[in-house]
Design a protein that fits this description.
binds iron/sulfur cluster; binds adenosine-5'-diphosphate; 22 helices; FAD/NAD(P)-binding domain; single chain; about 20% strand; about 675 residues; 31 strands; Rossmann fold; alpha/beta; TIM Barrel
């Protein structure tokens, strides 16, 4: 198929200084939890983006010096010549598919606590270092010699990047992580010398480093600047008007302006808190200041929206991190007129958890993300089947749908049966919760793909028993029947069931999602799950007029959501909704008219009156069918939440893994199922 003429504008080449991008699709720098540690995996992941049509593919922030060390986070390192081969491997993979390779050089100032190198951190002004762990480390104020040294280090890193083959070499002043932003912002710059005070002074170092970088590598490399347009502190920090003044003062100096919001949680907002294009109000003023290309992000997945933002003069290139993670082939699909096939990002930020947990990136929508090298998975391709088996998949949740889809692509005949009236499993329910509508895309994309296959058929309202399974006469049965929320209070904190009076009204997330509501108004919600479910159900009940007390053994509500950059927003929303928050406490028993709460530190108990309790603690696999089939000697496997309850991303990955490995010789338990990179001893 040819692309729709409407989208021609997206495929115009763009000149960026001395280099030219083949189209307007620009994968902005993004973290991935692989960094310097898993380089081959990292390189393959970037290569797949290039293969999918992104004209520019960038690395994440890359430390320019051992004194810019953000350990334990695994970002790239460009400290010395020793790092060049790793950096070059990534650039080569990007070039192999005809794209430009960009590298985001970074000194993180006080946000580089130097835990690994043990250098004293440096900062624009003396202050405690910041790096996610509240370390008792302070950063010292840079003197003029330090500033000269920083410039030398940046220049040296730029030259190494050029030797490694990069086409775009960044100056980074974004996300509260780039030291040039710390200089620019009055929130962090308290200096009284020529680098502090007026905007001109605060912008001095940024200007000097752009000039240094142009001078060092600008003959062959483009020099983009990534800059924070808003720090959301009002006049106490950077705001669009002041940043625009700074940009106006050096508008033609860099080769491209890459716009973002600060900190990272503001830049990578989830769909629960923002819509596609949410950055436009903050960035719309920049293009009229410069003739250089302007890149912006905003979870753009719709080609019509992309055309609008370019035609209306907001940006020149469609910047994307998450849309390129969820679908590395997004540009190719638009180019080939296959809009249906675009796997749209759901805005959940599971990808971000890789960085925060220092483990390889993963994605809810794209299970191949991070597995390109390690397991040889590809976001679009999968090898043909090795046998003619007809597979019955029981359960059309994320795991079952992904397994069925991928098995179908391999050429297997696939029958999918689900007891429910609609497909999607947990996603069908969860996408009706406040703010989670976009999560329905996990189901929608897979249903659409399965719907196109002649070799796959889906049967709803088909509750399967072992007898009914036998009637299908499939060669193999995959059970993907999901999991049920527990009703007995056990979970992380309470390792055993708690005392619950038979008169007490106890509900689970499953009850609430299927429409049941507490009979009284006062509800205690015990969240021992710590991800989104507890917070989202508190929000749901509160909006419906219930009085809600959220009890959590953690110090913060939805504490895992720190890793998805949402925790502060969730807690703020619950406070604003007047949800009572009872932290560091666990529900220890439930009576008809009250619960007892136990302090997690002292065990001291106190009562809390309520009419009903919602328990959000843990889930049990719905694996009865699996065991019944196994007992009959049926060829059966299980996957997703029915095997190990976890995230939607984990279920999709598990479904994909079943399909990828189906028909292979079973691996011995002791055999590694993936490749890994082992450091060569020095
Ligand atoms: P996962 O996240 O692992 O994909 P879900 O809970 O989302 O799991 O989906 C499980 C699906 O399995 C649900 O749609 C449910 O209706 C379906 N299901 C559970 N038991 C049966 C059964 N015995 N027969 C058919 N479908 C079932
Ligand atoms: Fe989008 Fe979620 Fe995938 Fe990240 S993990 S790219 S937010 S779908």
């Amino acid at each position: 198929m040819a692309r729709d003429r409407r989208y021609d504008i997206l495929f115009e080449p763009v000149k960026i200084g001395p280099v030219t991008a083949r189209n307007r699709f620009y994968q902005v720098p993004h973290c991935n939890g692989m960094g310097y540690r898993d380089v081959s995996a990292h390189a393959a992941m970037r290569g797949v983006k290039a293969e999918g049509g992104w004209a520019v593919v960038c690395t994440e922030m890359t430390e320019i010096h051992h004194g810019a060390d953000v350990a334990p986070y695994a970002e790239l390192r460009n400290w010395s010549d020793q790092d060049i081969p790793a950096l070059a491997r990534i650039a080569e993979n990007i070039h192999a598919h005809g794209s430009l390779a960009g590298i985001e050089l970074c000194h993180s100032g006080h946000t580089a606590p130097n835990r690994w190198s043990r250098e004293i951190p440096i900062a624009v002004s003396a202050r405690p270092a910041a790096g996610g762990y509240h370390d008792p480390i302070q950063a010292r104020a840079m003197d003029l010699a330090d500033i000269r040294n920083l410039r030398r280090a940046h220049r040296a890193a730029a030259l190494r990047a050029k030797r490694a083959g990069y086409d775009l070499v960044y100056v980074y002043a974004g996300h509260g992580l780039g030291i040039f932003q710390h200089f620019l912002s009055r929130a962090t710059n308290l200096r009284t010398d020529e680098y502090g005070g007026s905007l001109q002074n605060r912008a001095r170092l940024l200007r000097e480093v752009i000039e240094d970088t142009k001078d060092a590598v600008g003959d062959t490399c483009a020099v983009p600047v990534r800059i924070a347009m808003n720090e959301f502190q009002g006049a106490a920090g950077l705001e669009p008007a002041e940043v625009e003044d700074a940009i106006a003062g050096m508008a033609e100096l860099p080769d491209l302006w890459d716009l973002s919001l600060s900190d990272w949680s503001k830049d990578s907002q989830t769909s629960r808190f923002s819509a596609e294009g949410f950055q436009e109000p903050h960035i719309a003023g920049v293009k009229k200041l410069t003739t250089k290309p302007v890149v912006g992000v905003g979870r753009y997945t719709s080609p019509d929206t992309m055309v609008r933002v370019i035609k209306s003069g907001i940006i020149d290139m469609i910047g994307a991190a998450r849309p390129s993670i969820a679908d590395p082939f997004l540009p190719k699909k638009i180019e080939e007129g296959r809009l249906d096939d675009i796997r749209e990002c759901i805005g959940c930020n599971i990808c971000v958890t890789g960085d925060g947990t220092m483990t390889p990136i993963r994605c809810t929508q794209n299970p191949a993300m991070g597995e390109e090298w390690r397991r040889g998975w590809h976001p679009e391709l999968i090898r043909q089947r090795s046998n003619d088996a007809h597979v019955l998949v029981v359960g059309a949740g994320p795991a079952g749908l992904e397994a069925a889809r991928a098995l179908g692509v391999r050429g297997h005949r696939v029958t999918i049966a689900d007891a429910a009236r609609e497909a999607g499993g947990r996603v069908a329910h969860e996408c009706r919760l406040p703010g989670l509508a976009a999560w329905g895309r996990v189901r929608d994309w897979r249903l659409l793909q399965i719907g196109k296959m002649a070799n796959a058929s889906l049967y709803l309202e088909s509750a399967m028993t072992a007898d009914l399974v036998a009637e299908v006469e499939a060669d193999h049965v995959l059970v993907a029947t999901g999991a049920d929320w527990r009703r007995d209070g056990s979970g992380s904190h309470n390792t055993r069931p708690i005392a619950i009076s038979p008169q007490a009204e106890v509900l689970t997330p499953d009850d609430l999602m299927s429409g049941r509501r507490p009979t009284g108004r006062n509800v205690v919600l015990f969240d021992d799950d710590h991800y989104y479910m507890g917070g989202v159900l508190a929000e749901l009940l509160r909006r419906e007029g219930f009085r809600v007390s959220l009890v959590t053994p953690a110090p913060l509500v939805s504490i895992f959501a720190q890793k998805t950059l949402e925790q502060e927003l969730i807690q703020a929303r619950l406070i604003e909704l007047d949800v009572g928050i009872h932290a560091n406490l666990a529900v220890s028993s439930i009576a008809a008219d009250q619960v007892r709460l136990a302090c997690v530190f002292t065990g001291r108990e106190m009562p809390l009156a309520c009419d009903a309790t919602v328990l959000v603690t843990a889930r049990d696999p719905r694996d009865q069918l699996f065991h019944a089939l196994a007992a009959r000697g049926v060829a059966v496997s299980r996957t997703g939440d029915c095997f190990g309850p976890g995230t939607i991303a984990a279920a999709v990955h598990a479904g994909r893994r079943f399909a990828e490995e189906f028909g292979d010789q079973p691996r011995d338990f002791t055999e590694l199922p993936f490749r890994r990179e082992v450091t060569e001893l020095a």
